[in-house]
Write a structure and sequence with these properties.
The chain has 10 helices and 10 strands. It has helices at residues 21-48, 54-59, 72-75, 123-126, 152-169, 188-197, 237-255, 276-279, 296-302, 305-324, and strands at residues 108-113, 129-131, 136-138, 173-176, 202-209, 219-223, 227-228, 231-232, 269-272, 285-292. The strands form 3 sheets. It has a 6-stranded mixed β-sheet, with helices on both faces. A two-stranded antiparallel ribbon has the order 2-3. A two-stranded antiparallel ribbon has the order 7-8. A hairpin with a 4-residue loop joins strand 2 and strand 3 (136-138). The longest helix has 28 residues, at 21-48. The chain is globular and about 40 Å long.
Amino acid sequence: MSYVSPGRDPRRPRRDRRPGGARRSLVVVLAVVVPAAVVAGIVWLVMSSSGDDGGRVAADRAPGSGGAPPSASASKSSPPSKSEQHLPPTTRKPTGSKPPAGPLAGKVVVIDPGHNPGNSRHTAEINKQVGIGTNRKECDTTGTATNDGYPEAQFTLDVSRRLRKLLQDEGATVKLTQDGDRPWGPCVDERAEIGNKAKADAVVSVHADGAPVGDRGFHVILPAPVHAGDADTRKIAAPSRDLGTRIAGRFVAVTGSAASNYIGGGTGLDERSDLGGLNLSKVPKVFIECGNMRDPHDAALVKSGDWRQKAARGISEGIMSFLEQ
């Protein structure tokens, strides 16, 4: 087999009609073409093999395709060649791969935005009595509002959505009891059941208080140990207290808000046995009253988007601390 250098297509020599001429011409042509082709082929192979990536790219270009083989620096910015597509996965950069799971992967958190923006238009429904384990109370309430009309139900939904995003970014599976996707409710007993059915590792109900002016600060409501009627919080009382204590600590650190000056004796913790959302829970659960919407100082905080983001982060860090222990 003879070799032809890149870009060359030697024309066939005309046959010499004189006696002996054809043999002499053929010998001369072969003597010139063969060595030249071999040398050119060797030179092309040596040039194409220079550089880490350049050798692979040049090897895919057939002789005679035109143009000089790419340099090593140029080939590094070139797309992967066909030969690279067949490399083992460990030698190729993965594409479209999922991000690594976060520290809360496998954990389920239920967030309960207090009340519902539509409750005020469905007073008949929310005033119906439902069981709370120990007795019966209204299905739900409209919640409170700032003196200039910013509703608690809008505040709780906003903070809950921010909280959901923060927890999902850490790998948690997050469910909201309502996401502005229903006209009213749910009732307090259904809110508890949503957390139970989800087998949540933690449930937090987000609220804001409506106390007199001058009452300021946040507090976390914990389930008291209750064993009466359909209520039995004995198994969740201790882990719920742990969850609430961690949330209170991180809420102070992140928001800069002080613990309530009117409930909890400065601890930021309050234990109650009259809330259906706690009495009927089978999983660790707490409420947080993020501030007093009727006090001008606290009202300015809850109306601030920046502060609501801090509130969500403080709650999320408390939940993370509880779930990662």
